[in-house]
Amino acid sequence: MTGHRGLTAAAAGVLGARAGLAVAGRVPGARWQRTNFAGRPVSLLGGPVLAAAATGAAVLGAPTGQRAAAAVVGTVAGLVGSYDDLAGARPEQAGDKGLAGHLAALRAGRVSAGVVKVVGIGAAASVAAVLTRRGSAADAVLTVGLVAGTANLVNLLDLRPGRAGKAAVLLAGATLGGPAGGLSAGPLGATAGLLPADLGERVMLGDCGANALGALLGLRLAALPGRPGRAGLLAVVTALTLASEKVSFTRVIESTPGLRELDQLGRRRT
């Protein structure tokens, strides 16, 4: 990671998230309120706050050839994620969950909010592949897959307070090195700034925050050197996504020592 640029991006992410939370706390509106797994009221505004802070800080920290791509994937993933958060809560879309639910909606002649999100993130990932102009068509496919796949995977983890944030912090921290490390520094700072409020069940990431965060981290993975390594990462992301259709991540985490304790770290008691 470029030292000064990365530190500046991380600091901007933290400050942006904290400032955004202060503003969000004054915004009224039942449409942004949800009831979480423990039956407590939480605000979905944590998502837009994280998406804006992480995207802005990622653009600040990214190398020149990655800045436009970071702006596109973070912004679009946040916008379509926010649409899914709001439109997906409508009664007629209550059953449109997971790949099977979205496909069933299409067969019934309806375009679910989830499908809009998938198309939007896929399009943003494709634009990012063009903007970064990396290598061959195979590299472009890997970029699209990693951006879209990681955006979805982080969202799949957002089922308990702080879970997606902790995973993002670990992934961002592991990819701080190298010329493109600044891409991770901004999202790392923004997530760290929001994490206490997420763990305290005052806000949640929702699709908006989780998808934007995941898309930015996916863009960082796509900037890693070595095509075989990136292909391996895409295979892992794909396998986990497919497994989520059959296996409960929460059940696996809660039954696995180490993962269980990490998942509960900092959380309120239920």
Which keywords apply here?
single chain; 270 residues; mainly alpha; two-stranded antiparallel ribbon; 12 helices; 69% helix; globular
What does this structure look like?
This protein is mainly α. The chain has one domain. It is 69% helix and 2% strand. It contains twelve helices and two strands, in the order αββααααααααααα. A two-stranded antiparallel ribbon has the order 1-2. Strand 1 and strand 2 form a beta hairpin.
Task: Describe, in short, the structure shown.
This protein is mostly helical.
How many separate domains?
A: 1
Q: Which regions are unreliable across 5 or more consecutive residues at pLDDT < 50?
A: none
Q: Biggest sheet: strands side by side, in what order?
A: 1-2
Helical residue percent band? 55-70%
Number of strands: 2
Order of helices and strands: HEEHHHHHHHHHHH
Return Rg in Å. 17 Å
Q: How would you sum up the major sheet?
A: 2 strands, antiparallel
Assign the structural class, choosing from mainly alpha, mainly beta, alpha/beta, alpha+beta, or little secondary structure: mainly alpha
The global form is globular
Straight-line distance between termini? 39 Å
Mean pLDDT, all residues: 90
Assess the beta-strand content as a share of residues: under 5%
Number of helical segments with 4 or more residues: 12
Protein name: Glycosyl transferase family 4
